[in-house]
Amino acid sequence: MSVLGKSVFGLGSWNTWDRMGFGDAVRLLRTAVDTGVRLFDVAHYDFGPHAENSRTDVIFGKAVRDAGIAREDYVLCGKLWLWDYPRAGFARQLETSLGRIGTGHADLVVVGDYRERPDVPRVVTEVAEQVRAGRIGGWGVNNWLAADLDLALEFAAREGLPAPEFAQLKYSIARRSMAEGECYGKHIASGRLVLQASDVFEGGVLLGNATPARKIGADPGGIRQSIVDAAAELTAIAADFGATRAQLALAFCLAYAPVANVLFGVSRAGQLADNLGALDLARRHGTEIRTALDHLWLDRDVNPDGSW
Q1: pLDDT in tens, 61-94
Q2: Neighbours of 131 (CB within 10 A)
Q3: Closest CA to 18 of 38, 36, 42, 37
């Protein structure tokens, strides 16, 4: 199994660590690791639509050290961006991002996404160079077109290079098409890729926050208002299972067999404790939850070929 599966839950860092006081970040990291959350998704946001000069990665690096967490005790999942590739090559990106965190390697990286289709063989080859150099341990993809993903897997196999081993995708009660559709679904169903579920709360919309004040993810297919309209129904369904909406949303993802890791963001210890309750909920009622929520697959007809 991919190192991704070493922690069923992961904490993402898009505007996470800079949304709380530093002392709170230290305590939250310590609590997370002590309760089994060992994977942290940490990126340097300075490319394309994410050129926002965020310091969340710097804050994470200092906080994890102040929390007394040894590097071998957590899994670091970083990002390599294709927005300005190949002008901004992967060696340069890693030097910057790892330097800001204060570590010499990432256990995993997610490569993507892009506006213009990249030179896929070049991407695979350059990722392999960073694996050989010991800067990264393995890699996955995010929001690639079906043809590009197929080419990456075929090229890596033919050349004997490290292939993408997971896909970090929007996956939630409402959004399932990318992971379960043709683009990624065939590779996930075959076991060639495992799934890292991200944006599982739709930026808080599924939890009842219809108009989040902070920056949240894109809205493929323009279905967010439908998600807002459906969110209220989750309260009643969650109550049927004796759960909170957050636990229900997480348990839904955990109950899908190809999911190796579920990412979420929290800014308070209470949120973390609540979310961790989803693991037992999924074990006890996962199949029932999937059935109860099947009608809320709201992007069923959105770009079924994976061309996002």
Answers
A1: 999 999 999 999 999 999 999 999 999 999 999 9
A2: 15
A3: 42
The whole-angstrom distance between residue 221's C-alpha and the CA centroid of its chain comes to: 20
- According to DSSP, the residues that pair with 263 across neighbouring strands are 10
Alpha helix ranges (H) inside 160-243: 177-180, 182-189, 224-240
Q: How far apart are CA 89 and CA 78, in angstroms?
A: 15
Angle of CA points 189, 191, 193, to nearest 5°: 95
DSSP calls for 106-132: BSEEEE---SS---HHHHHHHHHHHHH
| Nearest by Cα to 276 from 308, 228, 243, 303 | 243
C-alpha span between 170 and 181 (Å, rounded)? 12
DSSP 136: B
Q: How far apart are CA 271 and CA 274, in angstroms?
A: 5
Q: How far is CA 32 from CA 44, 90, 114, 202, 223, in A?
A: 22, 30, 32, 22, 33
Per-residue pLDDT of 166-207, as tens digits, reads: 999 999 999 999 999 878 999 999 999 999 999 999 999 999
